[in-house]
Amino acid sequence: MNWIECRAKINLYLRVLGRRPDGYHELGTLFQEIDLADSLRWEPAPPPLALTVAGAELGEPHENLVWRAAEAFAEKTGIAAGGRFHLVKRIPAAAGLGGGSADAAATLRLLNDAHGQMLGQEELLALGCRLGADVPFFLEGGRRLGRGRGDRLETYAGRVPWDGGFLFIPPLSLATAAVFRAFSAGRASTEDDSRETRLGANDLLQAALALSPSFAEIWHKLAPLFEGEPFFMTGSGAALVWLTKSTRLTASQAERAQGLKVKTLPFRFSGAEGCVRTGSSLRK
Ligand code: C5P
């Protein structure tokens, strides 16, 4: 069995449009797949399931999204969950890059391929949605507008005049649910949907800054060094994104990041817009 890539995402913008009766928040967000990726491999074997992880702590296996996706696939198809999964983690956890969701989507695609495409794309999307609000995006990939919980995907007609840049990964993580809770505290349940949205806008930034003084320090020390090109938080943080045509950081950017123990990583957009992922590959 071959390794497949589980690519990360950034949110080129993220608007929170209100709270929903189901406890989630209504979003308007622009997802962009990038080339930073975990790798996943599956070897068929009789049940029970097995999972090994390199590059990060495995934690509780049953809580890993690969495991949960394999169980969800088994429940939906009636095929007992089995085989051996090997996951190599490169996407930092709780960074707003969708690492766990990317792994879940890759697991569903991989198992669906291995079992003769038993489920259609719509069934996979519905299954993905139960695992996490941004799993459906990872089943489609490329660049997509996300509405609803982020799971209602639409084509984006606007232009994005960048195709990559640098990620800044602070040495801390922010829990998505906590950031959304901080956002909601004291807010009305509906927001104005007509605000102009520029690339890099993120309604969760102020909540993340309020939640974590260490993150706030990093943001306030880095942000002034990026004039003229978008520098922003992705998802619920804590990873930061600089969209740029530059191929290197300036000396002051590199020094400041190093001083704050912030890891820097070049990235490129990946996946073509308008493509739908079927199986483990992209098809126009
Ligand atoms: O769906 P997922 O597990 O990725 O979401 C993690 C948490 O983030 C949810 O439990 C919820 O608290 C919050 N969330 C939200 N609104 C969204 C997406 C996530 O409130 N649209």
* Cα radius of gyration in angstroms: 19 Å
In this structure, how is the largest beta sheet organized? 6 strands, mixed
SSE arrangement, N to C: EEEHEHHHEEEHHHEEHEEE
Structural class: alpha+beta
How many alpha or pi helices? 8
Uncertain segments? 274-284
Query: What is the helical fraction, as a range of percent?
Result: 25-40%
Q: Would you tell me the overall average pLDDT?
A: 92
The small-molecule ligands in this entry are: cytidine-5'-monophosphate
What percent of residues are in strands?
25-35%
Q: Give the strand tally.
A: 12
Inertia-based shape: globular
* End-to-end Cα distance: 25 Å
Task: Give the tags.
284 residues, alpha+beta, six-stranded mixed β-sheet, binds cytidine-5'-monophosphate
Molecular structure report:
With 284 residues, this protein is α+β, with helices and mostly antiparallel strands. It is built from 8 helices and 12 strands. The strands form 3 sheets. Strands 1, 2, 3, 4, 5 and 6 form a 6-stranded mixed β-sheet that branches. A 4-stranded antiparallel β-sheet has the order 8-9-7-10, covered by helices on one side. The protein is globular. The protein starts with a strand and ends with a strand. Residues 274-284 have low confidence and may be disordered. The structure holds cytidine-5'-monophosphate. Cytidine-5'-monophosphate is lined by residues 24-25, 27, 132-134, 149-150, 176-177, 180. Cytidine-5'-monophosphate binds next to strand 2 and helix 5.
Question: Summary?
Answer:
The protein has eight helices and twelve strands. The protein has helices spanning 65-77, 99-114, 121-131, 135-140, 176-184, 205-211, 213-222, 251-259, and strands spanning 4-19, 25-43, 50-54, 84-88, 143-148, 152-154, 164-169, 231-233, 240-243, 263-268, 276-278, 281-283. It is globular.
